[in-house]
Amino acid sequence: xxxxxxxxxxxxxxxxxxxxxxxxxxxxxxxxxxxxxxxxxxxxxxxxxxxxxxxxxxxxxxxxxxxxxxxxxxxxxxxxxxxxxxxxxxxxxxxxxxxxxxxxxxxxxxxxxxxx
Length: 116
Known about the structure:
single chain, mainly alpha, two-stranded antiparallel ribbon, 3 helices, elongated
C-alpha cells in the first residue's frame, strides 16, 4: 500500500542517500592520515534518485564517487579536509532529519485520512 505513495518513496530514498553520504564521510575521516587517500562523496540526490529507479532503495555501489574538486591536497596526496567533512556531516544529518520529517508528516496525514 505504502509503496504506491510517491512522497514516501522519495523520503525513503532521501534518507538512504543521507545514510550513504554519512558512510562516505566516516570513511573519509577515518582515512584522513592515509597517504594518497582520495576523499569520496555521493552523487547528487537527483542523480541518485533517478539511478535508483525513482525511489527503490539502491546501495552505496554506484552512489559514491571520488570528490572531483577536493578542498585541499596534502603533500602525500591525501585530499581529506576534516573541517570540510564536518560541514558535510552536518548537511547529511540535516538531510536525514528532513527525510524523517517528511515521512512523519505523510504518516500523520494517512492517519488523519483513515480517522485515527
